[in-house]
Amino acid sequence: MENIEKQETYPMPRIGEKAPAFTAKTTQGDIDFPKDYEGKWVILFSHPADFTPVCTSEFMTFATMEQEFKELNCELVGLSVDGLFSHIAWLRTIKEKIEYKGMKNVEVNFPLIEDISMNVANKYGMISPNESATQAVRAVFFIDPKGIIRTIVYYPLSLGRNFDELKRILQGLKAADEFGVAMPADWRPGDDVIVPTAGSCGTAQSRMDDKDIDCKDWFFCTKKIAKEEVMEKILKK
User: Fold this and answer.
1) How many CA atoms within 13 Å lie on the side-chain side of 5?
2) What range does the domain containing 206 cover?
3) Which of 10, 136, 144, 154 has its CB 3.0 to 4.6 Å from that of 126, i.e. a possible disulfide?
């Protein structure tokens, strides 16, 4: 009976864990991940396939916003289970032929990983068999400068990502770290932030008396942090 090689399986990565390590070929040369990105934030994201329309719109948007992410000390790394020559041909086609929402002549300068073996996609749980056993879903991993997974977002094959939200997530994660606070629903830089719940009655009372903190009750306290102060802390860090 013919032996069929089985794809190695990995546990699903989780928030708070070290990002699974790998080496790979990319459109920008070989990378050792996440080692090569130590000290930087990284958005590692997968797309289903080259030469597909939704993915094309996403790559054009990522490339157009790349400098905005770099200003937040964040690098972009893409992945699909296509080969390197397919990647290169697709990115050249984007630059030479595709215009979308005013974006044209768009050059993708961040690395796009070749993953024909699906090794990286499987390590990161990017393959969802009920969606497709041969294409990666639109997974997004936010990885901090210490190589820790901080946020995971998944989109189905049919839905393009919200890039305003991806940038907001990065801003929120960095601001939460810098100020030791949490972010309420729909938070944007300059909005009120959540002060962590007090650990004792005395601390709770002192917060209720603090004029800079607005407490609706012991468990729900907010304070203002100016947009300028937030941006000064999170840019280039």
Assistant:
1) 3
2) 175-234
3) 136
